[in-house]
């Protein structure tokens, strides 16, 4: 047996054993294509469905944490939906979590992330063929869920804090809210416009490298080609859009555009929920602490909104 075949056999064996022994523990590991995740299963009940979580932008791991933000929101949501009777699968994106050291950032692409999530979806369909599989995308993950639903026809999609405009429009608005000098803001807008036209900018000032590093520019160019509202209008499976009224990153006007363009979906606005799914004040500066407070619970209206949608299917 070659090394490649041994690796594939071992990975399949791990998955098989994990699924067969799931009753012994609520959280079990999952692995596919070198990526890792956590299946959370309901205790003492037949699953009502399976939900694949799709993370937001940046180096967000399966728990919803990233280097600058420790929220634990996806872990909390996975546990809560498991308690409601659903299997959830939360995964580490390439370059995050358990696989953080295995991927060169320059090799990460929008299309690559999409293929990875498609592989996870196929994994769930294979191992739970008689159980409906849903997609739950948070922030950028909502766009991945939308694109996947066009082709793979899940039982439904749940878009939490989704963008309703192309990412170049979102970025420009977010940058205007920052205290940049006029000349710096003009430069940023020019870089964004060039990316929209599929042109990169070289020799970006070091202070802007966190936003416009070469690998990020390539990623943004892919991302900017998709209008979330237009893509959602192509989806034929049931959908739920959830927007937070106190979301300073992706405010409610985004969800409102989505539902105008794709009115067959359901829409729920949670008045005091912010982008990381916590209840916070409307003032953005006052709410920033929630981004590094894993002890702060999810907004109490979030899980009921999701389970109402799922129960109606």
From TrEMBL:
* Record's keyword terms, sorted: Hydrolase, Signal
**Under the GO molecular function aspect, what terms does this record hold?**
carboxylic ester hydrolase activity
Keyword Signal part of the UniProt annotation: yes
User: Lineage of this protein's species?
Assistant: Bacteria, Pseudomonadati, Pseudomonadota, Gammaproteobacteria, Enterobacterales
- The Serine aminopeptidase S33 domain is annotated at 71-275
Query: What is the protein's name according to its record?
Result: Hydrolase
Q: In this record, what's one Pfam family?
A: Hydrolase_4
Q: In the record, which residues are listed under signal peptide?
A: 1-23
């Amino acid at each position: 047996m070659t090394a490649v075949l041994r690796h594939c056999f071992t990975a399949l064996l791990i998955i098989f054993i994990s699924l067969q022994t799931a009753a012994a523990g609520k959280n079990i590991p999952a692995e596919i294509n070198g990526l890792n995740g956590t299946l959370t299963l309901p205790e003492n009940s037949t699953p009502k469905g399976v939900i694949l979580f799709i993370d937001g932008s940046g180096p967000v791991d399966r728990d919803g944490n990233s280097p600058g933000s420790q929220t634990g929101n996806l872990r909390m949501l996975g546990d809560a939906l498991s308690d409601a009777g659903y299997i959830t699968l939360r995964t580490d994106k390439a370059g995050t979590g358990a696989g953080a050291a295995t991927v060169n950032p320059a090799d990460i692409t929008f299309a690559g992330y999409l293929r990875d999530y498609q592989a996870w979806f196929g994994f769930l369909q294979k191992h739970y063929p008689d159980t409906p599989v849903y997609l739950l995308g948070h922030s950028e993950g909502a766009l991945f869920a939308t694109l996947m639903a066009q082709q793979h026809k899940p039982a439904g999609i749940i878009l939490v804090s989704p963008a309703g405009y192309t990412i170049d429009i979102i970025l420009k608005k977010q940058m205007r809210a920052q205290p940049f000098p006029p000349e710096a803001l003009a430069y940023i807008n020019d870089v964004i416009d060039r990316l929209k036209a599929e042109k990169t900018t070289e020799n970006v000032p070091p202070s802007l490298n966190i936003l416009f590093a070469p690998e990020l520019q390539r990623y943004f160019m892919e991302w900017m080609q998709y209008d979330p509202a237009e893509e959602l209008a192509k989806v034929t499976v049931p959908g739920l859009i959830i927007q937070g009224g106190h979301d300073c990153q992706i405010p409610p006007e985004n969800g409102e555009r989505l539902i105008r363009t794709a009115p067959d979906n359901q829409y729920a606005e949670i008045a005091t929920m912010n982008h990381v799914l916590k209840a916070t004040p409307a003032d953005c500066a006052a709410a920033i602490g929630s981004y590094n407070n894993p002890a702060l619970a999810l907004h109490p209206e979030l899980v009921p909104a999701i389970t109402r949608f799922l129960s109606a299917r």
